[in-house]
Amino acid sequence: MDRTFILRFAVAVILIMHSVPGMFNNGINDFGNLYLNMVGFAPYGVFLAWLIKLSHVAAAVLLLWNKYVKLASIVTIFILVMGIVMVHFSEGWFVVGGGRNGVEFNFLLIFVLLAIMFPNGINNKIKE
């Protein structure tokens, strides 16, 4: 186990739990039809929703295997940022407590993925 395993494992569990249940309860199709298609992605909303969720599953597997971690993280960070821009920003900061459906969880995941990508810090990577 390397120094990022615990974080990689935690993010993998979160990505799996954020995507797999929606594959069986129509959540992905609803996200595609009832949100993505309505905000301008029609007729590709369902296809895009499935790509997003399948990318989460792929990223989870890659994080667990410790393979292509930077690629998986970059794709996931892009999706998280787009989630902030399109969904969460208008709801404010808090996921619960001081608000609902805000950006704080995506913000945390983005920085955890950055910590996984650069386990020795960004300054050390720039110097190499």
TrEMBL record:
Its main location: membrane. It is found in: Membrane. Keywords: Membrane, Transmembrane, Transmembrane helix. GO terms for cellular component: membrane. InterPro entries: DoxX. The chain crosses the membrane at residues 5-24, 44-64, 71-90, 102-122. It is a multi-pass membrane protein. The keyword Transmembrane applies. This is Putative oxidoreductase. The lineage of its organism: Bacteria, Pseudomonadati, Bacteroidota, Flavobacteriia, Flavobacteriales.
